[in-house]
Specification:
The structure holds two protein chains of two kinds. Chain A has helices at residues 61-64, 73-77, 85-99, 107-139, 150-156, 158-179, 199-229, 231-236, 280-283, 303-306, 313-319, 326-336, 349-369, 420-423, 425-439, 447-459, and strands at residues 22-26, 36-42, 48-55, 188-189, 192-193, 244-248, 260-264, 270-275, 284-287, 296-299, 388-395, 398-406, 412-418, 476-481, 487-493, 499-500. Chain A is an alpha+beta fold. The longest helix of chain A is centred in the N-terminal third of the chain and has 33 residues, at 107-139. The model of chain A is unreliable at 465-476 (pLDDT under 50). Chain B folds into two domains: 4-73, Ubiquitin-like (UB roll) (Roll), CATH 3.10.20; 102-111 and 128-240, Alpha-Beta Plaits, CATH 3.30.70.20. Helix content of chain B is 24%, strand content 15%. The termini of chain B are far apart. The longest helix of chain B is centred in the middle third of the chain and has 17 residues, at 76-92. The chains are: A alpha+beta, B alpha+beta. Chains A and B meet through helix 2 of A and loops of B.
């Protein structure tokens, strides 16, 4: 980063004369879930004029679930994603509880679902931090690209890589025990769950949970130390100041499964407080832009220009008043002390917040495993059918909203899904612009500069589609085009990470 | 001495009038099938049970057993043909096993596994077929119907209602419901009917109740269909309990 006159990043969404500019596409983005690209338009002096994050996938779930029976939704819609299917499964599960007229689950059903959810967030956070993000953080954004991946991590930090794999494995095992499979199982049914835990399953998870908490503490310490090692640089990197949104428990505690919506302004003022998440549509609007398949949500009270907010671990750590597990709460206090006057807005602080949540999930799993309700036999409640169900949950990447309407026969007539990554769309774009404005200031373009753009996107852990999973093996082609469209230069990264021209 | 014949070299006794299928079932030898259910007259339409009897290809469910007959069942050639038939069945309808509530207790899926079909091979037809959820207790997903006619036979022969029939010819053949609107909710169908319990796939299902059996506990999760048999027999037993 260089000292210079600050660029107004809002002017970087759309350049005035794009036909005169040079285009660089980072396509596809690597080490994120799914497919996306970043386009940069530079002038003749290599100064940034336009920067956009595009999501190039179209999934169509909202359309093709129309006409399907409502009880299929948790199992059908979870196929949106191979990384966080449990979040979709449970958000849809909460929605179909309402469709089946059930407002309160049995203690066993709710705790089995919670266990599954904590296992899911633990595995997803471990996957992101160790496999996708840590190579940038440990080796440097512009380090040797051939080693800046999970294989390089295994070679140089084998113990760390092993902990990452085993933490994720434990989370997957929690999911398997509750859902029958590690990925795309079944658990939530209208008004409850289809199984509780057998004693042997509970004991199996209990034998490892102490180790998971210890590794969770170590992962948290690593994320914290990496952030603080270059505190000022990390504080500023890709930083934008936005409101934050998440569910919170009624008493203000961090809440991942079921709570009320809270939104906090950059100065700490509450913009939304104790909002029934089923009223989300009164407070959240979505803007459409011609250049992206992904919508741009904003807080209705602030309008589209300044109402964009952030969700996910960073938002949750900022919105909640406390965490109800002791180790994570200690970490939260230290984390929030970074910015005593307001919210922690540093985009790279997402990683630190994510590891606080990983530890919290491990602590929650330990608590649940000690709870006899988990072995209970009352699995399901029934009620009178209703025409609309809205399930809201905190997925690993942020607030996830599933909103369904059915006809009297029980078939879906309308669906609206707002996935976590969509909430962060504008924020990710602005973070990309902030980095581009800092780095693309006339100097020669390097691979490290392009990776810095990806580092900013990666911090949000976006799930750009869902089922595909690249692990840094994605090929990357960077083309430099002259204003007339003529290709001046072409840099190719193959699937082994080797560069050629 | 009782008459007997051989299936893949194993001697199988039979009683006069028994089909190859009936004698095989009695001897606990599995011949893959979809449209056969011992409670109803054999139909011979799915062709999955085709075996060679003394060198001739015949449907095991409609061919009487003969003394001294040599039957080939699970040969490489016959299994390959069965896999082909199954692959055709899978692309004709919309059989989305990953999201289907019948998955794990579906005879089509189980037979496909038994015959070694692990992936679709042909281009999917992706027919557009609406779900009929008009009945308060039972749903019909025509996307999964394989035209085995078991519901047709059960409703006609056992329930004495004639709720179902097959209309159209060739690739246009489809399941129809005998009511003025063509909807199940307007027919004489009842969830207590035999026809509600004979579907080998996920076409006729109870409403509001999918995925109640956890993965690992479903009919074909632990044992192959060659060991535990037809799903309809289990549905019948569960109904009686």
């Amino acid at each position: 980063m260089t000292e210079q006159d600050p660029i107004d990043i809002s002017r970087l969404e759309t350049a005035e004369h794009p036909q005169t500019l040079r285009r660089i596409a980072i396509e596809p983005l690597s080490r994120v879930e799914g497919h996306g690209k970043v386009t940069l338009l530079l002038d003749d002096d290599n100064r940034i004029r336009q920067a956009r994050l595009h999501i190039v996938e179209f999934r169509g779930f909202e359309k093709f679930i129309q006409g399907r029976p409502y009880w299929e939704l948790p199992v059908l819609v979870q196929r949106l994603c191979g990384i966080c299917p449990v979040s979709h499964h449970l958000a849809a599960g909460k929605a179909i509880d309402q469709l089946a007229g059930v407002d309160r689950l049995t203690p066993t059903a709710e705790k089995v679902r919670r266990l599954m959810h904590y296992g899911q967030i633990l595995q997803s956070h471990a996957l992101h931090f160790f496999h996708l993000a840590s190579p940038d953080l440990l080796f440097g954004f512009d380090s040797d690209v051939s080693r800046r991946n999970v294989v390089g991590l295994i070679e140089r930090h084998p113990d760390l890589a092993r902990q990452g794999v085993l933490l994720r494995k434990f989370g997957q095992e929690v999911i398997r025990v509750t859902a029958g499979k590690r990925i795309h199982g079944t658990c939530a049914i209208p008004g409850g769950v289809n199984k509780s835990l057998e004693r042997s399953e509970r004991d199996y998870l209990q034998q490892d949970i102490g180790q998971m908490i210890a590794w969770g503490e170590a992962a948290l310490a690593l994320a914290r130390n990496l952030f603080l090692a270059a505190r000022e640089q990390h504080r500023r990197f890709a930083r934008i100041d936005t409101p934050m949104l998440s569910l919170c428990r009624t008493d203000g505690a961090l809440e991942l499964y079921h709570g009320e919506l809270r939104a906090v302004a950059p100065d700490g003022a509450k913009l939304l407080e104790r909002i029934d998440p089923r009223d989300y549509h009164r407070h959240i609007r979505e803007q459409v832009k011609s250049w992206s398949y992904m919508k741009f949500p904003y807080l209705q009270q602030l309008g589209p220009e300044v109402g964009a907010y952030r969700v996910g671990p960073l938002a949750r750590l900022n919105t909640c008043d406390f965490i109800d597990t002791p180790l994570a709460e200690l970490a939260r206090i230290e984390f929030r002390a970074l910015e005593p006057g307001g919210l922690v807005q540093s985009t790279l602080a997402y990683h630190w917040a994510r590891m606080i949540e990983l530890l919290h999930c491990a602590e929650k799993i330990e608590q649940l495993l000690a709870d006899p309700d988990l072995l209970g036999g009352e699995l399901r409640q029934t009620g009178e059918m209703r025409p609309r169900g809205i399930g809201v949950i905190e997925a690993p990447r942020g607030t996830l909203i599933h909103d369904y309407e059915i006809n009297p026969d029980g078939l879906v007539t309308r669906a609206n899904l707002i996935v976590s990554t969509t909430h962060n769309n504008r924020a990710m774009n602005e973070s990309v612009r902030t980095v581009a404005a800092d780095l693309f200031d006339g100097r020669e373009i390097s691979e490290g500069m392009l990776n810095s753009i990806e580092v900013a996107v990666r911090a949000y852990d976006p799930c750009l589609s869902c089922a595909t999973h690249a692990l840094g093996k994605m090929p990357l082609v960077i083309e430099l085009q002259a204003p007339d469209g003529h290709i001046v230069d072409r840099l190719i990264k193959d699937t082994r990470g080797e560069l050629s021209r | 001495m009782n008459p007997s014949f051989k299936i893949d070299g194993v001697t199988v006794p039979f009683e006069a009038g028994q089909s190859i299928m009936e004698a095989a079932l009695a001897a606990k030898i599995y011949i893959p099938h979809l449209c056969h259910n011992p409670e109803f007259h054999p139909h011979g339409s799915c062709r999955l049970c085709c075996v060679t009897a003394d060198g001739r290809s015949v449907a095991a469910c409609t061919t009487p057993a003969l003394d001294g007959m040599e039957v080939a069942n699970e040969t490489h050639e016959i299994t390959t043909q069965r896999r082909l038939l199954l692959k055709l069945l899978f692309v004709e309808g919309n059989h989305v096993c990953p999201a289907c509530e019948k998955s794990g207790a579906c005879q089509l899926q189980a037979v496909a596994y038994h015959c070694g079909m692990l992936a679709p091979e042909f281009v999917h037809f992706y027919p557009r077929r609406a779900v009929d959820a008009s009945h308060p207790e039972t749903i019909i997903d025509f996307n999964r119907c394989i035209l085995c006619e078991l519901c047709v036979r059960a409703s006609r022969e056992y329930d004495k209602k004639g709720v179902f029939s097959i209309g159209g010819r060739g690739i246009q053949a489809h399941l129809m419901i005998n009511s003025a609107s063509g909807k199940l909710g307007d027919s004489h169908f009842s969830a207590a009917d035999k026809a509600a319990r004979v579907c080998p796939v996920g076409a006729i299902l109870p409403k509001h109740r999918g995925y109640e059996v956890p993965i690992g506990k479903r009919l074909y999760d632990q044992e192959s269909i060659s060991q535990v048999g037809d799903v309809a027999a289990h549905q019948e037993r569960d109904h009686g309990e």
